[in-house]
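Write out the 3D structure for:
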Amino acid sequence: MTMFFSIKKAIKGSCTALTAASALILGAVTVLSQQLPGRFSVVEGSALELQGAVAASDLSFAGDAQEVSALEAGSSYTASLKLMGLFPVKDVTVSVVEPTMVVPCGQPFGIKMFTDGVLVVGMSDVDTESGSYNPARSAGMKIGDVIISINGTAVTRTEQVAELVEQSEGKTMDFHIRRDNIAFDIKFVPAKSVNENRWKAGLWVRDSSAGIGTLTFYDPSSSVFGGLGHAVCDVDTGETLPLSSGEIVPARIYDVEKGESGSPGELRGGFEEGTLGNLTVNGETGIYGTLEMFPDASECLPVAMKQQVKTGAAQILTTLDGTAPQLYDIQIKQVRYNDSSPTRNMVIEVTDSELLEKAGGIVQGMSGSPILQDGRLVGAVTHVFVNDPTQGFAIFAENMLKTAQSVEEVQKTAA
């Protein structure tokens, strides 16, 4: 009888352990399924290998690695990812692409942008005879709206808005605006200011922007460049500035304001004479265009696909003085495949004593600084952690490359 109860107890314990193990595996599969994207790209001649994923050493895909590595660029296949080679996680589409070689830069550059339309950055009430009143806000306009035209006249300068409102003499105006990529009309009657004796809409607008960033790379075969690793946004609204035209110019770093917890540092520099190239895209993953003058830079390196990026040692190429970039040691602490945040794919930490001494870690103006690992361009710095300037976010180089290639395609079509 005692033996019977011992066996029964052992079986019960085994069932409990099995249930717990099953729950852990199911949980891991669910998490991985959510974290992993539905699409990957592999360079021609290689198979899919996940190096940066959670439990990457336990992830594999069901398929003949030799067979898929023989596929030519332009091909695609479906890979079934499995945990420990047994438990299905998800099926993903794998595209085979040609290897791309680019020149990592790290030099500072000046950005001069003119917006497509004018951006509403603020609102202020008009002092009318009846009291304070804001006609634009009352009609439904919001900060962040882009004014495309007024009464059918295209608007490109801030001065135009004031001129056209004054010329209305209090008649109903038709503002054609864009909000969240949707264009529509708003009609309202300007109000007359008692103190200024002029008609006003109650708007503050902006038509241009300028600043300093870091050049990430350029493709010597097309002269297309990528920089910043994130969009240029308006300082007041945080909205991405709609680009009409722009250029990048040479810049020089004169000083570094060291970053501290709660107070991000900054690269201090100025524009120099000349033009480096034209801007054509201000998008989520950075700014892009075509170079006319090529900066002194290092040799070409292959662009890493996101699954080739791994935690561990890496280097950033950035400029703290003058115009010549240097390599500094960092650690890639996390690799994230979340497509919903394409500029925050990695968490990095500065470990280089010289960079920590001079800058305290990552500072404003370093955005776009290339990240190198295992002889590849793997990404670029995008954000600093305000409460810990030794750490920050970085974007996959693959994400920037995709936008750069779209610029190249537009060039070919135009030609």
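The two ends are 90 Å apart (CA to CA).
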